[in-house]
Amino acid sequence: MGKGAGCLIPTFLSKDMDERKGKQIEEFRTDLFERQYLDRVQGFRKVSPSDACVVGDTKYDGQAAREAGIPFIGVLCGGSSADELERAGAISIYRDPADLLPNWSRWRDLISRREFAAAALS
């Protein structure tokens, strides 16, 4: 189990067993992670706003993107209307992530050219 999976321990151990062996199990998990996995963990490469975009389904996603200087692509699956997403600054709007993916070259081109004008609904 990963470090965050400690909440699952009550599923596998009784309360009594957890009280008696919990510290030992936690120490084992920590040691196992440090010995076998820690050296494989790599940091994320730095990404500049010019190499990124925000995909979101609310005007608040658009607002956050605008404040960060990052293009915003809207998706309708969250309940916001196309008009609301466009007013929030969406450069392109798609039905959902499944619709977004096959059109990646279109929005990738918009982002690379930094065309932040609202695009028509695809």
Query: Any idea what the CATH architecture of the largest domain is?
Result: 3-Layer(aba) Sandwich
Q: Can you write the helix and strand succession as a string?
A: HHEHEHEHH
* Oligomeric state as shown: single chain
CATH fold topology of the largest domain: Rossmann fold
Overall pLDDT metric: 80
Beta-strand proportion: 5-15%
Radius of gyration: 22 Å
CATH superfamily caption of the largest domain = HAD superfamily/HAD-like
Gap from first CA to last CA: 43 Å
Instruction: Give, in spatial order, the strands making up the sheet with the most strands.
Output: 1-2-3
What is the topological layout?
Blueprint (H helix, E strand, L loop, with lengths): L8 H4 L2 H22 L17 E3 L2 H10 L3 E4 L6 H6 L2 E5 L2 H4 L3 H9 L10
